[in-house]
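question for whoever is on the cluster today: can someone run the full assembly for these? two chains, 580 residues total. i dont have access anymore since they changed the login thing
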Amino acid sequence: MSSALRREQNRTTGTLLIPALAVIIIFTTVPALTTLSYAFFSWDGFQRSTFAGFENFQRLFSYPYLDQLTAALRHNTIAFIVIMAFQTSFGLLLAYAMFRVKRGLRVYRVVVFLPVIFSLVVVAYLWQSLLDPYYGPINQIITGLGVPELAKPWLGDTSTALPTLMFINIWRWVGFPAIVFLAGLNAINAEYIEAARIDGASESQIFRKIMFPLLAPSLTIITVLTFIGAYEWFDLPFVIGGSNGSPAGATDTLALMFYRLSFGSIDSGANNVGVGSALGVLIFTLVGFGAAFGSALLRRREVEQ
Amino acid sequence: MIKLFASRTFFQSILIINAFIVLLPMFFLLNSSLRESNEFARTPFALARDPFWENYQRVWSEGEFGSYFINSLIITGGSLTLILVLALGAGFVLGRYSFKGNNVIFAFILTGMLVPAKLAILPLFIQLKWMNLLDSRLGLILVYTSAALPAAIFIMSGFFKSLPTDLDNAARIDGASEFKLLSKVLVPLVRPGMAIVAIYSAIPIWNDFFLPLVFLQSPEKKTLMQGLTVFFGQYASQWGVLFAGLCLAALPLVVLYLILSEQFIKGLTAGAVKG
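^ ran it for u. tokens below:
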């Protein structure tokens, strides 16, 4: 390479790379690195005051925060288990159905994935209207079917609010695992399936013995993403239940609690940046370690093609 | 069970049932947006035989909906432009030049994909306040750009890497500068990558309501998804108007999706699937 070209390339590298790096460093790296330190100071509104050691963590684990924390953690965990079980198995079923069906595949694929591109705000309000206790068509259908005692204020009742939110979440997201699994199925070497068929294996044997084991990488990705999504669950509970997780905290989550502590709320009053940051560190640790540990565990059962 | 697995009809019917579960609520939304509110309350299931377009007129002319919509367009468009320009430059340098530190910089950029933006929200809030970028559309654009850039650079450098190096040498022999080489020769060849990056970045930015909720306070700067919460309070029980607002908010991405569904699906599963 001539030295003139090298000089020009060095100049180009600078002009093209530095702006992108600067934006990432200023708006992602610096805030991410400083966030940890916030938890170790006491705060007066958004003004940092004295070094506090582990005091914020101690307060997070005592009254009144501890009760909120355990309730929120329970809701996140229920959400992870239920969403993982139903969303993943429905997603797999849809993916396998699309894999088997030859006619109309393109249309089905577009439809299956459609809710995923809808804004969660739109989805939340759409379902809130559908489930409206007085005007909502869902309760009208239930009453029309002759079982009016099953018509409930689905989102207003403490016993049904969280399951209803999980249902809305699954309706919105199921297309994502479906498309990921479909891509995984399409990546399986067709010769394996052909050979098994020639040996007289049934379709269900082919699925259980060949396809499902080879889908392990897709399953790892889906599990990890569902885990992260469930423990950082915010948008849907916030739009429907507000920052306090109404009704009566039945839909409270860790991320909602983090938001209340960080920015304050109408009911629980002024913010507490220190305790909020301590909770942020806790969520980050939980999600980070959980995701890393889970994916390491799941990777072990992945097989090479 | 075994019989069911053998029959294509079974799987066809699963997909048809799923299509109903997906499309019926959406159809209900569209249909109800074209009906007068009182009529909707009386008979929620009747078809809008005589479309009541006034709902859409009211959404657009009354209140702030129009300005929310335009703010969202400015913020999404501004972010996309910045993301594409910066990712093209950085992707070109990292994908096609071999220099000392190339791999280190690339690895550093990838760590940006691991940071959950929501949990760094407090330092970001205080930092933006200090930089005078709080309650500012530009501030929001810069934050979105920063969040989307790592993945965008990753995708673009992959596309640049896959092009033959002969192209560069031929252009250089013809006297093209490095910048000309990028803009005139290579950019037209990486358009598919740019489409994936654009789509991949546009969905979360258009749909996001968390960052505007935290960073934007002035009513005239609010974005559409953030504004919908205000709008929903204002028009409570005016069903037709509410549904028309929801339809308008969902419309841009749905149209884009129907035109570019292949790239959409590819873009969103890129990186999620190995080989």
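summary bc i know u wont read the tokens: The longest helix of chain A spans residues 3-38. Chain A touches chain B through 90 residues (CB under 8 Å).
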